[in-house]
Write a structure and sequence with these properties.
heterodimer; A: about 300 residues; mainly alpha; 13 helices; about 75% helix; B: about 625 residues; alpha+beta; seven-stranded mixed sheet; 25 strands
């Protein structure tokens, strides 16, 4: 994974000093700066040096800002986490309700409506939706702010109404895709389970629909949880597009800036940390699935 | 307005509030942070940069960094006069009151420093600071040497060889050869406080509380989010003491986000709104400020052996085949059609014989004379970016250009790169392996042209071939080398202007580049932002800006409360009006602002939100 992180940021054209320095900066000064950042060494040497430090938790210093990479990534990660949890909660709740209803009313008009909504959610580019939300709620109605975490421009989240106001639009924009995907998954799982023999058996035992649905939900849980876990992982990575549209100071915006400025240490550090979180989250989901459904252990 | 009795209104309000009090209180509370942020005159600026420019002296982020960090926190020995909108910005005394070249030694300049100037940390500005700041960017073994600062300023002060103190308020600058451009060069070199650096011990610490002598003082910054500054009330030039109480600079690289921010009232001043957004902004009462400035958007052709651009007919034909008026229209009027390398009216424009304009017939004749016809078009390949500082709208402009030039037997192909990649590509000259292998024989990187070095030397001197300058095309012409060397040794401004005008005339007559337009750098200003003068420069001055609603318009009388205000109450009137009639106040409700965020009282909405009725024209 570390090799991929390192290789990815070095494959692209351009270099960090091109954006940082004027185009006519004297070559000797540029060379001195390259040496300062170790960019004059062969790639393999750069990789070994970087990995050695990264293993001890030292992800280096951002070339553009001269700030520590970890100091940049961790606060951004917290901000992305806040948005991701908000987006995931909204998306999962909407998805489960719509999916459950669509599955229960399989083949009927309600199913078609909810499935149509799910397909729309998955298909609509969320950056486009974000811009539309900004136009409607920020520009035209002026109900909600269009960018940042608060009016003052601070980047640390506190539990104030102001911070929540700033969260509303990005959370909605972010929740649309998970809502669509969870709706489809829940619908498929519920519709399939409702046709299974054990449901017939439960019905013949005289159980009412609510009790039956509880059994169905328990059986559908592992499958839905896997999907939710993946979605949460994607959201935790920070949505580059959503965070850029709303100037939300998370990892997505950080990555976006780092890509454009070719801030190699920052890019490598951020991608590696996000990748580690994604892997850890998948592991967590696997464990949770096994807990919910003992069959998976076998 | 319908006459409604006070009792009816009060009863209506009570009834409405019982039903919708929670929502209303929440909505009012939500409106408050913005209102509180406006308690003082704050100017909130949206920059196009992705991050806060470096704040320890020499800024990064190109000239936007100079504009919003360099010339705000710091001063140079010589500054730019940004007070006029009707003539190109020229040099004006800064931390040096006067300067002259030694009559006995043209490689020695004497600068007389301004007395009584203090850094923001309270220390005095003296000649020692100038020497110390020179060592900061040139002397690699000096404790204050900072390699990034050195790299950011080195190409701007190439003539400076040595800086020595003569007395506390006089310095000498020794140059590397004779150079008349020293005043221009020192205008890009900022003075940081030596005493403050020694007190804090490192540049990293200095960045937490940077100290210069500029008209603004640093307060705080949040990486990638904002920097706050307040006026330096003791600034040495009382005319430039800022008028607002605070300025907040926010990096918002996304143009649509900047537009939404000003329309939703989150910022007051926006850099570079997208041209297609300008009509929408204007319809909301937002003012658009524009002005010519020394910028050009042009095609820099390769002049290496075998390049099709070596044929002057081809270069002239391309210059004559661009419908610049149409392009201006496409850019919503935010451009000045090029008539040369410099914007029309520039001091050094001169009177070129070759008149650049849209004459496709003439262009086709020139192309035919060089053997290029509709059946045998000339293929050229131009490297261009998708976006970037000063690049305007590169791709739509390129497509327009492509269609224009096709009419004159050009087959224009593009090598589209991302901005950083184009910059890296542009640092290698036209004969680089990459350019040759991809068949690229021209490049579009917009440039500043405000001083003799940035306007001419770096493009047309054979010693300035990239990366030693910006002569990407590798143009080698002895006439430019000789004439520009002569200009650099000319100390009389009138003679210098004459020589530089002759350089510009030749540049145009030889059609060295294909010039398209000059940007006018649109800025969007909220209706309450007043006093901004858009100088004909890359740099701008925010010190004369003021916020009208507080200083110059009487505040609306506070509406009377319904009933007596309880002792110790912080009730704040909140005006309610309908969106379609924002000027009409329909009711005023009182909100206990201080209690809104008090968790103990959060549930008791009635305590926070009480009726206080008011109809304009019918005071209670």
């Amino acid at each position: 994974m570390s090799v991929i992180c390192f290789a990815l940021v070095h494959i692209g054209p351009g270099d960090p000093l091109s954006t940082l320095l004027p185009e006519d900066a004297p070559q000797e000064v540029v060379d001195r700066l390259k040496a300062e950042y170790g960019l004059d060494k062969p790639l393999v040497v750069q990789y070994v040096l970087w990995l050695g430090k990264a293993l001890t938790g030292d992800f280096g210093i951002s070339i553009v800002t001269s700030r520590s990479v970890l100091g940049e990534v961790l606060p951004a990660l917290v901000n992305s986490l806040i948005l991701a949890v908000g987006g995931a909660m909204l998306g999962f709740i909407v998805g489960m309700i719509l999916g459950g209803l669509a599955g229960y009313f399989h083949g009927r008009p309600a199913d078609r409506v909810f499935t149509g909504m799910a397909i729309t959610g998955v298909s609509v580019p969320h950056y486009w939706l974000a811009i539309v939300l900004v136009i409607i709620f920020s520009v035209e109605l002026q109900w909600l702010p269009s960018l940042g975490m608060n009016m003052s421009g601070a980047t640390d989240f506190t539990f104030t109404i102001e911070n929540f106001r700033h969260m509303v639009l990005p959370v909605i924009a972010l929740s649309v895709i998970p809502a669509g995907i969870v709706t489809r998954t829940v619908r498929g799982a519920v519709a399939e389970l409702l046709n299974q023999e054990f449901v017939e058996a439960l019905r013949s035992k005289g159980m009412n629909e609510r009790q039956i649905l509880r059994h169905v939900a328990k059986n559908a849980a592992p499958q839905v949880m896997a999907v939710m876990g993946l979605q949460l992982g994607y959201l935790l990575g920070g949505s580059i597009l959503i965070e850029t549209v709303f100037a939300w100071p998370g990892t997505g915006l950080l990555l976006n800036n780092a890509i454009f400025s070719r801030d190699i240490p920052l890019l490598q550090g951020t991608i590696l940390i996000l990748a580690l979180i994604f892997v850890a989250l998948n592991l967590l989901i696997d464990v949770a699935q096994a807990t919910v459904d003992p069959r998976i252990k076998r | 307005m319908t006459q409604v009795s006070r009792a009816t209104l009060t009863s209506l309000l009570h009834r409405k509030m019982r039903r919708g009090i929670g929502i209303a209180a929440l909505a009012s509370a939500m409106a408050l942070p913005g209102a509180q942020a406006q308690a003082e005159d704050v100017l909130r600026v949206a920059m196009t940069a992705a991050d806060i420019p470096i704040n320890i002296g020499q800024p990064d982020q190109g000239f936007e960094g100079f504009r919003f960090m360099g010339y705000m926190l710091y001063d140079a020995l010589v500054l730019w006069d940004l007070s006029k909108a009707d003539e190109p910005a020229g040099l004006t005394p800064g931390l040096a009151e006067s300067w002259s070249v030694d009559p006995d030694n043209p490689e020695r300049w004497i600068f007389n420093l301004r007395k009584g100037v203090k850094f923001h940390d309270g220390s005095d500005f003296t000649a020692d600071d100038v020497v110390w700041n020179f060592e900061k960017v040139t002397k690699t073994d000096a404790p204050q040497y900072e390699p990034k600062q050195a790299a950011l300023v080195a190409q701007r002060i190439p003539a400076l060889k040595e800086v020595n103190k003569i007395d506390d308020h006089t310095i000498e600058i020794l140059t590397d050869g004779i150079s008349a451009y020293v005043p221009y060069q020192v205008s890009f070199w900022f003075m940081s406080s030596q005493e403050h650096y020694e007190k804090v011990g490192s540049w990293a610490e200095f960045a937490e509380s940077p100290s210069g002598t500029g008209p603004w003082k640093f307060v705080s910054q949040t990486p990638r989010a904002k920097v706050e500054m307040v006026p330096n009330k003791d600034y040495w030039n009382p005319e430039r003491v800022p008028k607002v109480d605070r300025v907040i600079l926010r990096p918002i690289p996304e143009a649509s986000a900047r537009m939404a921010a000003i329309l939703s009232g989150q910022v007051d001043f926006v850099e570079a709104p997208s041209p297609d957004a300008i009509p929408r902004l204007q319809s909301s009462g937002i003012k658009i400020a524009t002005n010519a400035y020394p910028h050009n958007w042009a095609i820099k052709p390769s002049r290496i052996e075998g390049s099709p651009w070596n044929d002057i007919n081809v270069r002239k034909a391309a210059n004559l085949c661009i419908d610049r008026a149409g392009m201006k229209q496409m850019l919503a009027g935010n451009a000045i059609p090029s008539e040369g390398h410099l914007p029309p009216g520039d001091t050094w424009f001169g009177e070129p014989d070759f008149k650049i304009g849209y004459r496709p017939d003439e262009a086709r004749e020139l192309m035919a004379a060089s053997g290029h016809t509709a059946d045998k078009p000339l293929t050229v390949k131009i490297a261009i970016s998708t976006s970037g500082s000063g690049q305007m709208q590169p791709l739509p402009m390129f497509e327009y250009l492509q269609a224009n030039l096709a009419e004159c037997h050009f087959d224009v192909q593009a090598e589209v790169m991302e901005w950083n990649a184009l910059l890296a590509f542009g640092r290698k000259p036209a004969d680089s392996e990459e350019a040759i292998s991809k068949g690229i024989n021209a490049i579009v990187i917009s440039h500043a042209t405000q001083d003799p070095y940035s306007g001419f030397e770096r493009f047309f001197l054979s010693s300035r071939i990239s990366p030693a300058g910006s002569n990407w095309g590798m143009l080698k012409d002895q006439w430019y080398d000789d004439t520009l060397a002569k200009a650099a040794k000319t100390f009389e401004p009138e003679v210098l202007n004459e020589i530089l005008s002759s350089v510009h005339e030749r540049v145009v007559n030889e059609a060295e580049w294909v010039w398209v337009v000059h940007d006018v750098n649109p800025r969007a200003l909220a209706p309450h932002v007043k006093g901004f003068v858009q100088a004909k420069s890359w740099f701008q001055d925010l010190t004369p800006v003021y916020i009208e609603r507080y200083r110059h318009r009487p505040r609306p009388a506070a509406p009377a409360l319904y009933g007596a205000r309880p002792a110790g109450s912080t009730a704040r009137p909140v005006r309610l009006s309908f969106p379609r009639h924002p000027d009409r106040i329909h009711a005023v409700l009182c909100v206990e602002t201080a209690s809104l965020l008090d968790p103990d009282r959060a549930g008791r909405v009635g305590d926070l939100f009480r009726p206080c009725a008011y109809w304009p024209g019918r005071p209670p």
